[in-house]
Amino acid sequence: MQIAGVDIYVNHPVLHLGATDWVPLSLALDTAPAASCDTHVAVRVRPQRGLIKVRLFAPPGDRGQFNVRVAVNAPGPDASAIDIIITSPSK
Questions:
Q1: CA–CA distance, 26 with 5 (Å, rounded to integer)
Q2: Buried residues in 53-62 as b, exposed as e (16+ CB within 10 A)
Q3: Which of 8, 30, 38, 80 is the least buried, fewest Cβ under 10 Å from its Cβ?
Q4: How many separate domains does the chain show?
């Protein structure tokens, strides 16, 4: 179920999504289209060429540990849509 969504305009080619804390220095994107750590996800996007659509999907239910999957419409510098899918951990 989609629980949130936003269209944003970015000036930087990397969009960081996650906790309200500072992005850790250990989160290095290098040449990859995306990278993550325990608190943030960094996604390479297309800056200054239009809105970036971000949607958040999560199952209804209890809080706790979850798996997070990030999908983009075009991996790399042309990404303009990001889906974040939160699922229950595999058993």
A1: 27
A2: ebbbbbeeee
A3: 30
A4: 1
In angstroms, the Cα distances linking 51 to 10, 29, 36, 41 are 7, 22, 22, 19
CB 29 within 8 A of CB 57: no
* Gap between the Cα atoms of 58 and 79, Å rounded: 22
> What are the pLDDT digits (tens) for 1-59?
999 999 999 999 999 999 899 999 999 888 888 888 888 999 999 999 999 999 999 98
DSSP assignment, residue 77?
T
* Global model pTM greater than 0.85: no
| Domain range for 31 | 2-87
Residue 35: both structure tokens together = 């990278």
